[in-house]
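Sample 3 of the quickstart, ligand guanosine-5'-triphosphate:
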Amino acid sequence: MECGIVGPPQSGKSTLFSLLTGYVSPEGAYGRREILRGVSKLPDSRIEALAKVSNSRKLVPATVEYVDVPGVAVTPDKREPYPPAYLAELRGVAMLMLVIRDFAAAEIPHPRGKVDPVADLIDASLEFIFNDLSTVEKRLHRLSKQHDPLLKKEAELLERCQTALQAEKHLRDLDFTPEEEKLLRGFSFLSLKPLLIVLNVGEEGTQEAEAKLADLKANAGDLGRHVGWVACAASIEGEIARLDEDERALFMDELGFKESALERIVRATFDLLGLITFFTTGDKDTTAWAIRKDSNAVVAAGAIHDDIARGFIRAEIYGWKELVAANGSHAKLKEEGKLRVEGRDYIIQDGDVINVRFNI
Ligand SMILES: Nc1nc2c(ncn2[C@@H]2O[C@H](COP(=O)(O)OP(=O)(O)OP(=O)(O)O)[C@@H](O)[C@H]2O)c(=O)[nH]1
Ligand SMILES: [Mg+2]
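Result:
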């Protein structure tokens, strides 16, 4: 699943993209307006703990993909439309991460002429709404010319969306039936996607990061459900991420952040995507797998391999902590009654270690 990075020009999107994915822009590429994609690993200390008791040769974290889309200026006086290629990318992702500038840096121009996170957030989120509204209206116009009763349901649903969007309400805040969700899927509405707001407070703003975030939240208007908030200092945290571990802890302490920007942002991304992690572990590898909350054992098996899902017989399941406490011994877990044997319908819990018995 992909997360699209979006926001006003020069807000720190590409700086964060590099921090998240380790991407290093080639010499001379600065300011090139291209779409970039990269993979981020979710830091998870449970993998190390499991790998240790299993003597795993390889450690494989769960990942999520980010797509860095160059900024487009959207202020009330200057509304550049999103170029179609950018819009197509943003429609294709599962969620959006909106990067808002709150660092001063006089030498870096701001499309508004001044740093104003509240106005930037409001304009950017309205832009999602306007885009969706235009999609809805185009489709309703076409539907109005057709008299197929099967399309009536769609028209009614879109009219409901239109009313909400006209009231500047985000579609993610409406309730839809599974059938309606299916009908809406093809439109890839921007305001329906979970939204992570990342406030780039700059090096000078880290001590007040939480207060700045609270202020933005209080003044941004109603953004609806499925919204996450993170404050960071993109440039300096990017530099810190490249230091040795000891030095890193020292600098992070000074900034006042308990976890790295990578941890904070990727964790928030996973949460908004509704993902949980389960593990497989053995001497070959310990792997963290991401699946949607409320997935059953067969879905988990399918995340590992299609064949394992197809030939699913049962799954042996235990909590990661239990396996660590038993020092990796299945026999001990069995003895203590902590090894559970579950069928297809078992709902996987975050932190489960699973071992699928299958037959192909
Ligand atoms: N002082 C300061 N400068 C920053 C910070 N984050 C980013 N910058 C600088 O702001 C400029 C723009 O950063 P980018 O990451 O390229 O911004 P962007 O959002 O990708 O910009 P576009 O792709 O053009 O929309 C660069 O010169 C960065 O070094 C920050 O936290 N503090
Ligand atoms: Mg950029």
